[in-house]
Amino acid sequence: TILIVDFGSQVTQLIARRVREAGVYSEIAPFTAAAEAFERLKPKGIILSGSPAGVPDEGSPRAPQALFDAGVPILGICYGQQVMSHQLGGEVRPGHETGEGGEFGRAFLTVTEPCALFDGLWEVGERHQVWMSHGDKVTKFAPGFKIVAVSDGAPFAVIADEERKFYGTQFHPEVVHTPDGGKLIANFVRHVCGLAGDWTMAEFRQVKIAEIRSQVGDGRVICGLSGGVDSAVAAVLIHEAIGDQLTCVFVDHGLMRLGEAEQVVSLFREHYGIKLVHVNAEDRFLGGLAGLTDPEKKRKFIGGEFIAVFEEEAKKIGGADFLAQGTLYPDVIESVSFTGGPSVTIKSHHNVGGLPERMNMKLVEPLRELFKDEVRVLGKELGLPDIFVGRHPFPGPGLAIRIPGEVTKERCDILRKADAIYLEEIRGAGLYDAIWQAFAVLLPVRTVGVMGDHRTYDNVCAVRAVTSTDGMTADIYPFDAAFMSRVATRIINEVKGINRVVYDYTSKPPGTIEWE
Ligand code: XMP
């Protein structure tokens, strides 16, 4: 085990992720609980995280002194390096005092000495890109340390005390902008700390199952399924831990893709034997959407109605002690604003986010530390079918935000057919996994066409496909012309109500991925 001591950095979880990628198990403890965690875990190595604080600031966090006396290897990152230097007898001064300012963003360092962190990776004299983000800097290192790499702005870019196996990096190895960062962390946990690197998601599964059992005891858990990967993986994992103490509620708003609702129900009930309440609320949702055309009003209605239906169902089954959610780490970071300032609402996102406060239940969130791709690996581990695990993200409000203007049952049915054909062609061409999201949109526009010898006057369908890594930015997927014309021809021929297909060529920004 590696103990990661968290001083409040935005990217502490990324350190844990890199350690997992190196095949090693880690636990994160806030600095206030680090001494206790150290006793309990008896880790083979310690990583000290970054922090928004500065070591010279009054009241800024410190590592428990015992960690430095335990004879265990330590890697200090950014603030972690500074706090270690400070606590071991070095000196850290604010950027403004040294008159040099900080370093933020891409930087280059030069390796000046061999170091165990660099083994098999970096040679003396080489320059490497790293990601810096610091104002203060170490101005005098602690006894026993030497400099092993320098950058223009940080003479102590990497420091090492090979005797005690203490290392400090002024840069952030855990972020992707430090291209070799993952390998540096792997060197630390495997090579320096001597851990085998054979930890897998299978063990994560076992650890979480034990945690869920101890958190829940003999309490009852309710989990809202959306049809998406995250809530499905959370539910299956929790079910494995506590069996029938879990009840899943699938609020079917009638705005799912073709065949999707049936798939969810049969997978959960038949394959996993999970207690599942399938609430067919199509009429209720479509009834409420009648006459609504404003995108925000549609979103707000669906979000509110979802919560109302969920609450009713929870009451019907006699309530629960815990609410389970498939919250992932990016959801956690996004909800903690980095700048602290208000951000502009582009769209009111609909998730079950408002539920916990309303229902006064404790949360079970077993995926909180994971990133999307890790959840997919865990899903496979739990036996979820590939087609389910690899599925493109789908927005909570469903097809309603892919039907600009008023949403009706008829329009949903038309869109479902077109969307299914489009996705079938994408899968057939082997392109599904190269695309982040692909979907059809039914426009509130009718155009004139000719089919056979007849005039048609029908709807326009837009198709969209984007690549992205996190949904925050996106680029269009460049299909070839033959593929596009096959899709257009099939949709127009096979879907009554559509006589024209257009391709959405807008990246994000300036567009958003969804149309509303
Ligand atoms: P936009 O359209 O804002 O979408 O570029 C970014 C990503 O978020 C998905 N999305 C949602 N997901 N509830 C969700 O759970 C929502 O209300 C919602 N709206 C958009 C969208 O599909 C894309 O992946």
TrEMBL record:
Annotated GO CC locations: cytosol
Catalytic-site annotation from UniProt: 78, 172, 174
Organism encoding this protein: Sphingobium lactosutens DS20
Pathway connected to this protein: Purine metabolism; GMP biosynthesis; GMP from XMP (L-Gln route): step 1/1
Protein name: GMP synthase [glutamine-hydrolyzing]
Gene designation per UniProt: guaA
The keyword Transmembrane belongs to this UniProt entry's keyword annotation: no
Keyword terms, alphabetized: ATP-binding, Glutamine amidotransferase, GMP biosynthesis, Ligase, Nucleotide-binding, Purine biosynthesis
Binding-site residues, ATP: 226-232
Gene3D superfamilies assigned: 3.30.300.10, 3.40.50.880, HUPs
EC number: 6.3.5.2
